[in-house]
Write a structure and sequence with these properties.
The complex is a heterodimer. By secondary structure, chain A is of the alpha/beta class. Chain A has one domain (4-94): Ubiquitin-like (UB roll). Chain A has helices at 4-8, 33-39, and strands spanning 15-20, 23-28, 46-47, 54-55, 68-71, 74-78, 89-91, 93-94. By secondary structure, chain B is of the alpha/beta class. In chain B, strands 1, 2, 3, 4, 5, 6 and 19 form a seven-stranded mixed beta sheet that branches. In chain B, strands 8-15-9-10-11 form a five-stranded parallel beta sheet. The chains are: A alpha/beta, B alpha/beta. The complex binds flavin-adenine dinucleotide and FE2/S2 (inorganic) cluster.
Chain lengths: 102, 490
Amino acid sequence: MSEPRDLVGGAPETSFTLDFDGRKLPAHSGQSIAAVLWSAGITAWRTTRQGGAPRGAFCGIGSCYDCLVTVNGRPNQRACLLPARPGDTVTPQEGTGHGALV
Amino acid sequence: MAPSSDPRPARTAAPAPGDGTGAVASAADLAVVGAGPAGLAAAVTAADLGLRVTLLDAGDRPGGQYYRHPAPELGAERPEALHHGWAAFASRARRLRDHERAGRIRHLAGHHVWTVVRKDEDAAGEWHLHALAGPEEQAVTVRARAVLLATGAYERQLPFPGWTLPGVVGAGGAQAMLKAGLVLPGRRVVVAGSGPLLLAVAGSLAAAGAAVPAVVEAASYTGYAGRLPALLRNPAKLAEGAVYGGALVRHGIRLLTRHAVVEAHGTDRVEAATVARLDRDWRPVPGTARRIPCDALAVGHGLVPQLELATGLGCATRTTADGTAALVLDEQQRTSVTGIWSAGETGGIGGAQLALAEGELAARSIAGRPLPAELVRRRSRLRAFADAMGAAHRPGTGWTGWLSDDTDVCRCEEVPAGLIREAVADLGATDARTVKLLTRAGMGWCQGRMCGQAVAALAGCAPGPDRRPLSCPVPLKVLAELPADGGTAP
Ligand SMILES: Cc1cc2nc3c(=O)[nH]c(=O)nc-3n(C[C@H](O)[C@@H](O)[C@H](O)COP(=O)(O)OP(=O)(O)OC[C@H]3O[C@@H](n4cnc5c(N)ncnc54)[C@H](O)[C@@H]3O)c2cc1C
Ligand code: FES
């Protein structure tokens, strides 16, 4: 079975593990947090405020805010934009805060 | 609340001295918002012509949506394998680096411009662009004598039952995640919606190793036939179509035209899609439904120009052939507001080639140079082609027929179609704004980017142009610190 990497060749500069909800996920430098989660087969990492429904990345470009995660204690980060970094602890998030919207 | 500081060490370079709100830096000749094909072409052309340019983009790397590519640390040897026409980008990216080194272009990556205001007292007509830099959301103000808005587009989404299930992703979104992160949403991906982007997405996903059981297209490519003259004037586009067509054949991908995904199934993740035939108005034909197993579904119905910075400035808009609102631009790429130019998808969805041409034309206009006749002809040719495509893929009015009352239309606020229908039928709402006030649809984080087109359709009105007071969520402390001479927010 071929992988995206086969298409573009090369290798990541460094690899590390990302702490997601107590799991250790393989991550490569230069990948967004959402990309790390997708490579681990994880497509949901948040539950909605009202319905408690699972959500993950949808638009992939920072417009939909469905991919929000808490990174190192800081909530409401867009996983599709934020690069994963060694030592990061990512926790799923329940609901979305509205405090930042004016 | 969005906390004001990221506990992680800063990774975006701190803005150069003089960038901070309130600090003085001399005004650039031109500020370009967006480093996609349009903005990038404009910035390097303007710098070639001697202007001092500041180029701002929310993303970490230039290229926008079309030329999205992995971070250097991911070590992709052949990023061009995921693109058509990579050379056009590579040459401009090189020119950008040269101009940066020579101090003619200041490239501010990771800067999201949330508003643009005119500094009224200044007779020279200076503009202030307010941006948030990096995950730390540092406030930055850029001053410029002219502004080019090249903010591109986002995907048009038409909801269907199950579209909020994990594994259902934007078609362009899947493409973006693949191009930037070398990842797939699943191993068996149905691609659905409408528009030529679906063919590109299916081709890339398959080339990257996914099985694509079908491309489900609501329009019919035979709809192009009546507009053949525009197609024949664009042989390169036809060739591109053939490339996509060839890729589909090579990977054994079925193209189902006049079909739509009318439901996605699954509990914690999508497991299958129900596909049905559509009539001419995109109404599902009873008795034609069948199920296709999949572990991901990539959907999109074309694109919507991203206009909030422009509409905030009062730039006039028009409705285009694809049914979305775009900016009114003259042959010089000028908006209706003096001093504000625009290029690329903001003037009507038209693709990367058109964006490159328009960016270059805008830069020449801003520099007060004549427009090369060949480039002007190229622009009209590509624009005519885009209009023909846009009309062929414009959603039919019957699509709301596949929305069940319990389908969440607004993903953020979880507002179901039934509630919106009630607001329209029982409470007399006739436009998206009233629906929003009655139901909260469009009031969440995405500010209506995902549901706006659907809410308008349910309210029975044409979608209005993008309007948002701020382009992205802005921490209160940044608003509070806005200096008085930063101008008044619209
Ligand atoms: C998700 C997605 C995927 C796509 N994938 C493809 C594809 O694979 N193939 C294809 O042919 N076409 C694709 N397109 C179509 C795309 O619109 C291209 O035609 C092309 O990239 C348009 O060029 P542009 O310069 O007009 O805009 P874009 O390429 O969209 O560039 C706009 C840039 O502006 C920046 N920006 C926007 N608002 C702000 C702001 N307020 N502050 C700072 N920066 C801002 C964005 O970060 C972006 O980099 C895609 C579109 C989308 C939305
Ligand atoms: S996936 Fe839409 S904002 Fe991240």
